[in-house]
Amino acid sequence: MDVDKTIKELSQNEKKVLLTLKKLNGKGSPEDILKNGDFNQEVEVMNASSWLQSKRLVSIEEHIKTVYSLGKEGKRFLEKGLPERRALKLIYEKKGKTILKELAVSLEKNEIPIAIGWLKKNDWVNIRKDKETFLEISEKGKKALTEESDDEKIIQLLKENDNIEIGKNKINSLLSRKNVIKEKDIITSTILLTEKGKKALEKGFEIKDEISQVTSSIIKNNEWKRNIIRPYDINAFAPAFYGGKPHPLVDLISKIRHIILEMGFQEIQGDFVESCFWNMDVLFIPQDHPAREMQDTLYCKTPSKIKIEEKQLLSEIAKVHENGGSTSSTGWGHEFSKIEGERALLRTHTTVNTIRYLYNNPKPPSKVFSIGRVFRKENIDATHLPEFYQIEGIVHEKDTNFRQLIGVLKEFYKRIGFEKIRFRPGYFPYTEPSMEVEVFWNDEWMELGGSGIFRPEVTEPVGVKNPVLAWGLGLERLAMLKFGVTDIRSLYISDLEWLRKKSLI
Amino acid sequence: MPLVTFDYNDFIDLLGYNIPKEKLIEKLPMIGGSFDKIEDEELSIEFFPNRPDLTSVEGIARAARAFFEFEVGLKKYDIAKSDISITVDPSVKGVRPFVTTALIKNVTMTDELIASLMDMQEKLHFGLGRNRRKVAIGVHNFEPVTPPFTYKAVEPDSVQFIPLAKDEYMTLSEILEKHEKGVDYAYLLEKFDKYPLIVDANNNVLSFPPIINGSLTEVTPFTKNIFIDVTGSDRKSINYALNIVATALAERGSQIFSTTIYDEGKNYSSPDLNPNKKNLSIDYVNRILGTGLKEKEVINYLGKMGYDSTEMKKNKIEVKVPAWRSDILHEVDLVEDVAVGYGFDKFETDFPKELTFGRTLPQNDLLDSLRSIMIGLGFNEVTTFTISNEKDEFTNMGLDLGKMVEIENPIGEEYSGLRTNVLPSLLKILRENRHHPLPQQIFELGIVVDEHAKNRYNLAGIKIDAKANFTESKSIIEAVLRDIGITYSITEGNHPAFIEGRCGSIIKDEKEIGFFGELHPRTIQIFELEHPIMAFELKVDLLSQVF
After folding, report:
1. Chain B positions in Cβ-Cβ contact with residue A263 (cut-off 8 Å)
2. Nearest residue on chain B to A263, alpha-carbon basis
3. Is the Cβ–Cβ distance between B181 and B212 less than 8 Å?
4. What is the C-alpha to C-alpha distance for residues A318 and A309, in angstroms, rounded to an integer?
5. Over its length of 505 residues, how does chain A's per-residue pLDDT go in tens digits?
6. Of B131, B381, B429, which has the smallest distance from its Cβ to A246's Cβ?
7. Cβ partners under 8 Å of residue A206, min gap 6
């Protein structure tokens, strides 16, 4: 970035930091800058410096330094004097010589050994052992009476300045005493002008009154006419903002719903809990079909049974299953069980809505669709869920046919984003002919839906005399293709960060 | 779906004609299958469960021979006569009533054939056979046994023989208790006190259907002549199964011999490979497909699918349906095969002709508006499972156990019923998102199922934040209700999931339509959360006349 633009975008405080650094020969701690520049608080210096660092005008170096202050004992010593000092004074008062026991007059019991130790170490006394231990001030001791020891000087120094650096060799003897000195490491920063910073200073700038945050009073008082509004670095970081948004899956449902509506279809829906009769029997799924077994379909304990109110239909369907009834089909050739039909289950497909609609509206024309959840006994893993959405539509008119089904499918898939599709023979118990739909996506053909014409065994008993075109597909599979999601669970066990960041278009 | 794995070269040998692998892979699925895996010469293809005749490489080769027009029309197999017979004893009628048999001679046993036979048997047992209930197949080495055979039912402990995979005599009850297959399939016989058995003239046991064969007739790589028995509950199904297995062996160059079944005073010659005749109207074909096909064209396309057909009177043809096609129930099934023979990719696109108007369900329009309101208030939409459990729905929310739709065969305790409220689902989502920054505010317009097993819509919203509280919940619910535009009143609520005195109940037309407030710390902890939460739930059905 060129220096002129950088200079233009400098805030007041940033400029002040640069100018102060120039005064300090290009290097200084935040305290130095605070003292030598026109700042109120160190935090202003630090904020401006880190912005300057992000603009590469300064660099910030961090160092660790060890500083000292007085500990609990240290403060006591400051008040009462060091034990050896107090002992020395006492001996002096006793004419320069005394017995050890006498020290108890001005020292605590536990201080006596400490005092003796340091008196000896400092050579302030000579010790003589007879029946008693005698202490006598030495030459050095006499001298010491009138001047402060090094340790005492440091204690005084720390009294006046907290948290300062002191040479390790000087403070070692105090450090060896318990609780006298507190030691801590602090991080200090040094702010240095970079080459770019120096260049900016060479170019020169002045500190003028300029507007950073525009306020109501600036607007009302026309201050904006007198002062420059400082330009910002538009590449600087701005905090993320997340508003409310639709869930991508629901958003996709909404889009598909609009597409099917535009194609002239009417929306229908139904309940999750259904009878086997409506979910399976009416759709000519044989009563011993493997998909009806407990390992594939979720049956209900409460309610366990749903009464079939449609008596006439029930007897029609029983005949169709047993021998084809009036449909000229052979049927499945097994005895139909009404009890099996009355079992309650969680619907395994939305086709149950469709067939019920046809039963209630047997006269053409109609086009209806539904988008709803269906249930299967699947354990939850990356590609399976026990409940998922099915999208389904039918076309019912007097002369519908297979070619029209292909036309409707091509149009529908094109509208949901698949220009290239192809068809393969398929199989569903309730359609004939049946087709699998494949879409070309990411350079490969993928199965995405099924379709067909309802079998006469399905339509005739519900009073429909014409072929009915039907197609359906799974929403989640489509969503996974569209969103690039590989784990189907993430659609239902939402990660809020994913939801916040997922694009909607 | 049944997956058949075969070797390309073995397939070409069976086909008797050459077809490049690439073309086979491209075109074979157009009969109605899909390739699952292709590894060098090993191909795996899945066909649909309505085509048990395509559960073996032999059957696939037969279909391909016609489809690729090497030999169109009905495949015919010679059946030589034999005097072998089996008598159905009345004792078995109440247990497993039907049997059919065939003898196959001059079998050239190869590894491929043994593998294919076992695989085909397993698939037929599963699909057509409904896990052996409807059909069970026994394949035997014919040499060690002496016809005539008898199919009868016997007392479980009256007979003992050495079953396959064992080397000691076992009674029928012992087999059901101890033999691997006996344990798996014992339930098929649990209602009976006598068990089915096939024996030869010297009372040697061939098989104990539908459980296991005797080791006496075990098929080995040296077996030359094969005897097949098929037993079951449905005469049609056992015949299809027998025809599928017998013709598969004949495809490998063996000779089929007929056997006689003596059953209830009648005798049947088996296998019966005479085609079933079905009339097909050309108008019907054209009506369903939207085409203008002539008789000859229809006959031609059916030929590609393995049928022989002849013109009858104008507009009608008679179709000979192969004796191994169990899926032809109605004329329409032939129409599909005409379409497959014609080629799905050749149909010209057309569109429905009659005008219909698109129309939404008014309740779904209302849901759309509610969704916009919630998003406008800054809530993130989520979508969750409607399958839940008693604990999350009631116990964890401090409620007494209530009525819910319960699942008889749940996938697990956590998924044992349908939810009655949406709020627990939202709390579970927050639990999954504990590691993400706060605040989090989410909502769902979700289906719940009431005590009459009817679907209802509920709108629930929830916010977790260091400063979430009752006042905020009231502001939010009032904003929602203001945007919906209904008149309501608020009274003190007493939902146990909320802090006492910090829960409101929303009343419309003297009915409670929802509740809101600040969740009790106890509820928050139960869902493993640790920040204040405000929440509300509204019964959408009670908001508007559209429901």
Report:
1. 358
2. B358
3. yes
4. 14
5. 578 888 888 888 898 898 898 988 888 888 888 888 888 888 888 988 989 998 899 999 988 888 888 888 888 888 888 888 888 888 888 888 888 888 887 788 888 888 888 888 888 888 888 778 888 888 888 888 888 888 888 888 888 887 888 888 888 888 888 888 888 888 888 999 999 889 888 888 887 778 888 999 999 999 898 888 888 888 878 888 899 999 999 999 999 999 999 999 999 999 999 999 999 999 999 998 888 887 899 999 999 999 999 999 999 999 999 999 999 999 998 899 999 999 999 999 999 999 999 999 999 999 999 999 999 999 999 999 999 999 999 999 999 999 999 999 999 999 999 999 999 999 999 999 999 999 999 898 999 999 999 999 999 999 999 999 999 999 999 999 999 899 999 999 889 999 999 888 8
6. B381
7. none
Cβ distance A456 to A327 under 8 Å?
Answer: yes
Which residues of B are less than 8 Å from A302 in CB distance? 403-406
SS3 B103: strand
Tell me how far apart the alpha carbons of residues B169 and B162 are, in angstroms, rounded to a whole number: 4
Cα gap B20→B64, rounded to integer Å: 13
* Chain A touched by B433 (CB under 8 Å): yes
Residue B509 backbone dihedrals phi, psi, to 5 degrees: 45, 45
Distances, alpha carbon A236 to alpha carbons A60, A232, A233, in Å: 19, 8, 6
CA-CA distances (angstroms) from residue A255 to A228, A448, A475?
Answer: 49, 17, 12
Residues of A in contact with B383 (CB under 8 A): 247, 249-250, 491-492, 494
Distances in whole angstroms, Cα of residue A427 to Cα of each of A452, B45, B347, B430: 9, 15, 19, 42
Contact between residue A368 and residue A359 where contact means Cβ atoms under 8 Å apart: no
pLDDT digits (tens, 9 = 90+) for B445-465: 999 999 999 999 999 999 999
Residue B264 at interface with chain A, using a CB cutoff of 8 Å:
no
Q: Token digits for A500? A: 């916040």
Q: Tokens 């959840």 — which residue?
A: A373
Please state, in angstroms and rounded to a whole number, the distance separating the CA atoms of residues B214 and B227. 13
Q: What count of other Cβ atoms lies within 10 Å of the Cβ of residue B252?
A: 22
In degrees and rounded to multiples of 5, residue B37 shows phi and psi of -145, 145
- Pair of tokens at residue B345: 């990719």
Q: What is the DSSP letter of A368?
A: E
Q: Tokens representing B505?
A: 């109940």
Sheet holding A125-129, edge to edge: A97-99, A133-137, A125-129
Which of A345, A348, A349, A323 is closest to A336 using CA atoms?
Answer: A323
- In this complex, do B383 and A250 lie within 8 Å of one another by their Cβ atoms? yes
Residue A1 has what pLDDT?
A: 56
Rounded to a whole number of angstroms, the distance from the CA of B334 to the nearest CA of chain A is: 9
* Residue B148 near residue B87 (C-beta atoms within 8 A): yes
In this predicted complex, what is the ipTM? 0.92
Does residue B435 sit at the A interface (CB-CB below 8 Å)? Answer: no
pLDDT digits (tens, 9 = 90+) for B264-317: 999 999 999 999 999 999 999 999 999 999 999 999 999 999 999 999 988 999
Sheet architecture: strand order including B440-449: B380-381, B440-449, B455-464, B533-539, B511-519, B498-508, B489-492
> How distant is the alpha carbon of residue B315 from its chain centre?
37
Chain B residues close to A332, C-beta within 8 Å:
329
Residue B413 CB neighbour total at 10 angstroms: 9
Answer yes or no: are the C-beta atoms of A300 and A346 closer than 8 Å: yes
Query: What is the least distance, in Å, from the CA of A449 to any CA of chain B?
Result: 14
C-alpha to C-alpha distance for B419 and B393, rounded to whole angstroms: 7
Q: Is A243 on the interface with B (CB under 8 A)?
A: yes
